[in-house]
Structure formats: structure tokens, C-alpha cells
Design brief:
- This protein has about 120 residues and is mainly α.
- It has two domains: about 50 residues; about 80 residues, no CATH class.
- The protein is about 70% helix and about 0% strand.
- α1 packs antiparallel against α2.
- The model has no long low-confidence stretch (mean pLDDT about 80).
- This is DUF8040 domain-containing protein.
- Keywords: Membrane, Transmembrane, Transmembrane helix.
- Pfam families: DUF8040.
Length: about 120
């Protein structure tokens, strides 16, 4: 296989991978809208309020940062998905980190890592 053929193959594979990631992201949006529709139309309940919308948005960010791909995970939190999962497990087992009523362990760790990896503030 010549180097030109190899480059074409790499470009084709990366384009295909990007298309898959776009489809996954679109699928997450469709799932979110489906959940909103089903929950809001169940038993005459009012549409989702701001708190519930923020919950779904937080879950989407967690998915994109920690479960979508190693490349995206490394870009956002500077570690791959396996290492992030191991870190959460270690902090829970050895560090005594516990989930609360409002936030899961992976969300706590993700918030911390996003803050320190990008020198950002957690507040607006």
C-alpha cells in the first residue's frame, strides 16, 4: 500500500468516524426531545420546568465529556474515558467521595476537572 493510498484511507476513516459522532450527537438530541415529549404528555403533567431541562443538559455534557470518545474526553478533561472511570471509582472507594441527592460522583469529578483543566470558574 503506497503512502498516498494510506492517506486516502486515513482520511476516509476519519470522515466516517466524524459522521458517526455527529449521528450519536443527533441521536442524543432526539432521545432528549423524546423524553421531554413523553414526560410532559404523561398524565396531563405540565411541560418540563427549568430544573428538569438543566438536568438533561447536564447529563448530555457528562456523556459528551466522558463517554462519547477518547479523543473528545482527552480534549475536554485531559484524560481518556477508562482513566476517568478509574479515577471516579478510586475517589469513591479510597477517598470517601459519595454521591448526594443532587449530584453524582462522575459529575463532581467532571466539574472539578473541567475547572482546573481550562482554568475556568464554576460560576457565571
Amino acid at each position: 500500500m503506497s503512502s498516498m493510498e494510506r492517506r486516502k484511507l486515513i482520511v476516509a476513516i476519519s470522515a466516517f468516524w466524524n459522521l458517526i459522532m455527529i449521528c450519536v450527537d443527533l441521536g442524543m438530541e432526539v432521545m432528549k426531545l423524546t423524553v421531554i415529549f413523553l414526560v410532559s404528555n404523561r398524565l396531563g403533567r405540565q411541560p418540563l420546568d427549568d430544573y428538569e431541562m438543566k438536568h438533561y443538559d447536564r447529563q448530555r455534557v457528562i456523556y459528551k465529556c466522558t463517554k462519547m470518545s477518547d479523543t473528545e474526553s482527552h480534549r475536554k478533561i485531559r484524560m481518556n474515558r477508562t482513566l476517568f472511570t478509574n479515577l471516579c471509582d478510586l475517589l469513591a472507594a479510597e477517598g470517601g467521595l459519595k454521591r448526594t441527592r443532587n449530584i453524582e460522583i462522575d459529575e463532581m469529578v467532571l466539574t472539578f476537572l473541567l475547572t482546573i483543566s481550562h482554568s475556568d470558574k464554576n460560576r457565571s
